[in-house]
Design a protein that fits this description.
- The protein is built from eight helices and seven strands.
- It has 252 residues and is of the alpha/beta class.
- It has one domain: Rossmann fold, CATH 3.40.50.
- Strands 3-2-1-4-5-7-6 form a seven-stranded mixed β-sheet, sandwiched between helices.
- β6 and β7 form a beta hairpin.
- It starts with 12 loop residues before the first helix and ends with a strand.
C-alpha cells in the first residue's frame, strides 16, 4: 500500500488514494508472518467520504489524507470490484519475482498487494510499510487468518521507508507516489535500499483518470520518470491500465 513531506500521513495515503477514488471520488468512482507494527492511516473517516477532499499541500506538494479504522477501509481497499481497474495480477507479474526475493510494499495498507506478492515468495519476504499503526495491525491479523507467514509489517514515518541499504530486490509503490512530499529525497532512500539488479515499480494515476486524487495532485508519467532519472535510475512506462500507468525503474 498506505505515499506529504512524509511528515504527516501523506505517504501511506498511498493505497489510500485508491480508496478515495472509490469512496468519494477524487476523480471519479469507480497481505505473512507476524507484522511488527501498526500501519499508516491518516485521520480520515471512511464513513465521511467528503473528508477525502481534506487534502492540502505539504513541502513537496504531496496530497495529505487520513485513514483510520482499518476494518472499514478494508471494505474499500479489498473490494473485489477494484481488481477490474487495478489489475493486481498483471502488476505483480510485471515485477518479475522469484521465490527467494525480498520485496518492499510501500504504503501497503490492508495488504491488497502484499498478500499477492507473499504467495509468490515461497522462500522470500514481503516488508509491508505504512504510516498507520492500525493498518499494520490489520495486515498482521489478515496474514494470520490467511496462513501467510512471510509478511513483516512495519510502521514508518512519512519521509523514510526505513529499508536497510542494499537489502531489497523489488520495491512496489502503488497509488502512493502522489502522496509523497519531498519525492526526490524519498526516491534516494529507495534507491539506496536496492540490491544489485533491483527494481522499483511505481503505479499511479493518469492525468485524465476517472478516479484517483484531484487533478492538481496527479503526476504526468514523463515527470515521474524525470524524478527517478534525477536520482540515478533508468525508468520507463512498462504499460498502462485504464486509469493508471506502471513505471519500472532500475539503477543506470
Amino acid at each position: 500500500m498506505t505515499v506529504t513531506p512524509r511528515g504527516a500521513s501523506a505517504y501511506m495515503r498511498v493505497k489510500h488514494a485508491l480508496v478515495l477514488a472509490l469512496l468519494a471520488g477524487c476523480g471519479g468512482a469507480p497481505a505473512p508472518a507476524p507484522v511488527t507494527a501498526p500501519a499508516p492511516t491518516m485521520a480520515a473517516d471512511p464513513s465521511a467520504p467528503d473528508d477525502h477532499h481534506a487534502h492540502h499541500d505539504h513541502q513537496g506538494g504531496g496530497m495529505h489524507h487520513g485513514f483510520k479504522n482499518a476494518e472499514e477501509w478494508a471494505k474499500v481497499f479489498d473490494d473485489p470490484a477494484r481488481d477490474a481497474w487495478q489489475e493486481p495480477d498483471r502488476i505483480v507479474a510485471a515485477m518479475t519475482l522469484t521465490p527467494a526475493m525480498t520485496v518492499a510494499d510501500i504504503g501497503a495498507g490492508t495488504g491488497y498487494f502484499a498478500v499477492r506478492i507473499a504467495r509468490v515468495l515461497t522462500h522470500g519476504e514481503v516488508i509491508a510499510t505504512d504510516l498507520e499503526p492500525d493498518m499494520i495491525r490489520y495486515l498482521g491479523e489478515r496474514a494470520q487468518r490467511e496462513g501467510i507467514k512471510n509478511i513483516r509489517g512495519v510502521v514508518t514515518p512519512a519521509d523514510d521507508p526505513q529499508l536497510r541499504p542494499g537489502s531489497i530486490d523489488r520495491i512496489l509503490v502503488a497509488d502512493v507516489w502522489h502522496h509523497l512530499g519531498d519525492r526526490a529525497a524519498y526516491a534516494r532512500k529507495l534507491v539506496s535500499a536496492l540490491r544489485q539488479g533491483g527494481q522499483i515499480i511505481i503505479v499511479d494515476f493518469k492525468l485524465d483518470a476517472t478516479r484517483g486524487p484531484p487533478p492538481k495532485f496527479r503526476i504526468a508519467p514523463q515527470d515521474l520518470i524525470a524524478e527517478l532519472e534525477a536520482v540515478g535510475l533508468t525508468a520507463t512506462v512498462a504499460f498502462e491500465l485504464a486509469d493508471q500507468y506502471v513505471i519500472t525503474a532500475r539503477r543506470k
